[in-house]
Write a structure and sequence with these properties.
Order of helices and strands: HHHHHEEH
Mean pLDDT: 78
Strand order of the largest sheet: 1-2
Structural class: alpha+beta
Strand content: 5-15%
Number of strands: 2
Largest sheet: 2 strands, antiparallel
Length: 96
């Protein structure tokens, strides 16, 4: 998946003359999301009682274990969920 995205980014730079600074920013975001996902996986690999007693929630765990700039990215993310007639935007942290 990551290789496919990087290939698309590289071809966009070569053929569509997209600003390479924007591309670097998107690649940086992908790496930050990768770190966040690794942290979420680590939380779920902990024993459930230990995780609950020590951190309470996934949100508390992430606040303690990811960098501030990664936390800022995470809180800005929105998940779009189709809901009959309207599309609702719900924070990622509200779902977790």
């Amino acid at each position: 998946m990551m290789a496919h995205i990087l290939f698309q980014c590289a071809s966009a730079v070569c053929f569509y003359r997209i600003n390479s600074g924007e591309l670097e920013a998107q690649i940086n975001k992908l790496h930050r999301l990768k770190r966040i996902i690794a942290c979420v996986r680590h939380y779920y690999s902990l024993h459930p009682n230990f995780a609950k007693d020590t951190y309470g929630t996934l949100e508390n765990y992430l606040q303690q274990h990811i960098a501030e700039y990664d936390w800022a990215l995470l809180t800005q993310l929105q998940i779009i969920k189709p809901d009959q007639d309207a599309i609702l935007h719900q924070s990622v942290l509200d779902i977790a």
